[in-house]
Amino acid sequence: MVSDSLLSQQLDQTLVGTNLPLPGRYQGKVRDTYDLGDQILIVATDRLSAFDVELTSLPFKGQILNQIASFWFEATKDVAPNHVISQPDPTALLARKCKALPVEVVVRGYITGSLWRDYLEGKAGVYGIDFPKDLKKDQAFDHAIITPSTKAPVGEHDEPISCDEVVTRGLVPADLWEEVQKRALALFARGQELALEQGLILVDTKYEFGLFGDELLVIDEIHTPDSSRFWEASEYEERFAAGKEQRMLDKENLRQWLIQERGFKGQGPAPEIPADVRVDLARKYVMNFERLTGKPFEPAVGDPKARLEQNLRAVGILR
């Protein structure tokens, strides 16, 4: 396990952003993307956001996200093909350039998080699903459901919509949307299966899809702590029966801290995140990596920008 002292030492050497001498730079919430023609370079930074607001950075977060995504892309490529070509740096992926579908495909196996909050407030009907009236927090659904959202620009909030609206609004053609849903549910089933082998429950997750010509591919990231929620499987039933919070290995820890300690839900000025909270969150990301992959995390210590540029030069992406 990576020590807290190492995480603390790396607080001042996080990869907050990149400005590589490459064309077509686009900055997302976490990733910086460069347009290389029919390929793209995706750099996972250490930026940390919640409620669609950028808050701070975590040591090694970009490396962890990138390597977890790479692990899952490889483990699910027989279920749904993806855009990955290679991994030139611990924080970077070289991928096929796809035309991204303008919808985030959120698959849920349990009612928790934002869906539970919407359910309590009577807002869950926006997804076009007739939820039972007597659901309990963290209760499992009989089968996984899809609750899509639009993809908002950086700094704006995604908009929840129903599966029917995806088609009626003209966001995705009906036949393509059917295939997207089929692949998303298959990916989620594989993710739950492999996570359970490591003693974890894949609770819910977000997928993004794109077209490479006529080929539908999974893009962006998959089953990372930023895009997915994971619980300890061995404690689920006992905690659910007692009405206790589940043990989490994902970004919901940050959301709960923001709500409970700072009263922040994405509106108004973002609070400062203390160093000890950043270290604690980074430790959870490391634990997530090791639990999901079954491998020890090997941190790339030092200046991440210098290493990234050196590795990109080594493979000819940078001159």
UniProtKB/TrEMBL annotation:
<feature type="domain" description="SAICAR synthetase/ADE2 N-terminal">
    <location>
        <begin position="26"/>
        <end position="263"/>
    </location>
</feature>
<dbReference type="GO" id="GO:0004639">
    <property type="term" value="F:phosphoribosylaminoimidazolesuccinocarboxamide synthase activity"/>
</dbReference>
<dbReference type="GO" id="GO:0005737">
    <property type="term" value="C:cytoplasm"/>
</dbReference>
<dbReference type="InterPro" id="IPR028923">
    <property type="entry name" value="SAICAR_synt/ADE2_N"/>
</dbReference>
<comment type="similarity">
    <text>Belongs to the SAICAR synthetase family.</text>
</comment>
<keyword id="KW-0067">ATP-binding</keyword>
<keyword id="KW-0547">Nucleotide-binding</keyword>
<dbReference type="GO" id="GO:0005524">
    <property type="term" value="F:ATP binding"/>
</dbReference>
<dbReference type="GO" id="GO:0006189">
    <property type="term" value="P:'de novo' IMP biosynthetic process"/>
</dbReference>
<protein>
    <recommendedName>
        <fullName>Phosphoribosylaminoimidazole-succinocarboxamide synthase</fullName>
        <ecNumber>6.3.2.6</ecNumber>
    </recommendedName>
</protein>
<comment type="pathway">
    <text>Purine metabolism; IMP biosynthesis via de novo pathway; 5-amino-1-(5-phospho-D-ribosyl)imidazole-4-carboxamide from 5-amino-1-(5-phospho-D-ribosyl)imidazole-4-carboxylate: step 1/2.</text>
</comment>
<dbReference type="InterPro" id="IPR018236">
    <property type="entry name" value="SAICAR_synthetase_CS"/>
</dbReference>
<keyword id="KW-0658">Purine biosynthesis</keyword>
<keyword id="KW-0436">Ligase</keyword>
<dbReference type="Pfam" id="PF01259">
    <property type="entry name" value="SAICAR_synt"/>
</dbReference>
